[in-house]
Structure formats: C-alpha cells, structure tokens
Amino acid sequence: MAKVKITLVKSTNSTNRIHRKTVQALGLRKIGQSVEKDDSPVIRGMVRQVSYLVTCEEI
Length: 59
What we know:
Number of strands: 3
CATH class: Alpha Beta
Largest sheet: 3 strands, antiparallel
Structural class: alpha+beta
Distance between the termini: 10 Å
Helix content: 25-40%
Order of helices and strands: EHEHE
Mean pLDDT: 96
Number of helices: 2
Number of domains: 1
C-alpha cells in the first residue's frame, strides 16, 4: 500500500477547534514534525480539511 508523508508547516493557534483536533488525530504536534501514514480516502480527507496547515507528499 502506498504511503504519504504529512508535515505540519503552520501553527494551529487561532484555528478552528475541529481543525486542531484533525491535526492532532494525524499525530502531529510541533511545527516541522512529519508522520508517514497509509494512503487511504480517510487520510486524504483529513489532509484536505487542514491543507492550509500541512504539506503532503507521496512516498
């Protein structure tokens, strides 16, 4: 299964509470932190919701 690398590039301060929870559910805490997740429609939807806070690249 393909993987995606998700990196937090902006702070979650002053953002929507639901978006903060989404970033937390992705496993991101600090700016610059990256996680690798399996590529699935659920993960893609989460990344799309907070696309202004994260970058995503396929591995």
